[in-house]
Amino acid sequence: MYIASQWKDYEVLDTGDGEKLERWRDIILRRPDPQAIWPKQKPELWGRADAHYHRSAKGGGEWEFFKKLPDRWTVKYGALEFYVRPTGFKHTGLFPEQAVNWDWMAGLIRKAGRPIRVLNLFGYTGGATCACAAAGAHVTHVDAAKGMVQWAGENRKLSGIDETRVRWIIDDALKFVQREERRGNRYQGILMDPPSYGRGPGGEVWKLENELFGLVSACEKVLAEDALFVLINSYTTGLQPAVLNNMLTMAVQRRHGGRVAADEIVLPVTAGGVLPCGASGRWSAE
Question: In Å, how far from its chain's centre is CA 92?
């Protein structure tokens, strides 16, 4: 398992009965998590929640606040700092389990000791973008949602990363990659965190099981000969690590050599155990 265990400002206090109880610095949130199908281990902790997201039987849901919270606040991970806030879709604008991948990519970038260009597809609010840029890479951050790109830019500034280290692109991921191939642009690192389903800025429909292998294959065409890594992350239920392993083996390793690994990505739970948070597939040149 890939375990994101280095957080100080974030903590999963307990899980169970389809929910998780989390500390975001000094604010405690209670959110749904369908993977937590076991009983709560520390029931006495759950009354400490400052806000609780309730799912609706009709889809979606809403927050119940037990005290007035800031519109947004910040959490730190090492030298990085990010804005978080409860959104209407239960999310907070940050996936803390991804810190284990940030550390992996940052380590490869620092060890390379040379100019590294990174392509971050479905870049969301820029956690990985900030981590790679802080390690010394130049990052092209791509997301179809203008609001998410704006949020990522605020995180870049908050983390003290020079604005020249990041290029911001609002576009459909596959179309952008195809244009980069035609332009002759190449990257030493490529990462993607695709949704199960979504729409691009022009109404393009994205359905993971139909589109992912084609996207990975297109990305291989813009992978530099001196590439360091490719990372695929997925939250889609039922998409096993072996699927990501196969894709990276077929689309990347057969041409570039290196090694492929894939595993579950998890968060430690203070009350005991770990919380599953999807899967990550990694290709590295080493």
Answer: 12
Contact 50, 65 (CB under 8 A): yes
CB 174 within 8 A of CB 182: no
199, pLDDT greater than 90:
no
> Which pair of tokens denotes residue 255?
């041409």
CA distance 83 to 18: 26
The sign of the torsion formed by the CA atoms of 280, 281, 285, 286 equals: positive
> In sequence order, what DSSP letters do the residues of 194-261 get, joined into one string?
--SEEE-TT--EEEHHHHHHHHHHHHHTTB-TT--EEEEEE--TT--HHHHHHHHIIIIIHHH--EEE
CA–CA separation, 12 and 200 (whole Å): 33
Q: What is the mean pLDDT of residues 183-206?
A: 82
So what's the pLDDT on residue 204? Answer: 66
Radius of gyration of the chain (CA): 19
The CA angle 93-142-258, to the nearest 5 degrees, is: 100
Number of other CB atoms surrounding residue 232 within 10 Å: 28
pLDDT for 201 beyond 70: no
57/153 Cα distance (integer angstroms): 35
The 3-class SS string of 18-61 reads: CEEEEEECCEEEEEECCCCCCCCCCHHHHHHCCEEEEECCCCCE
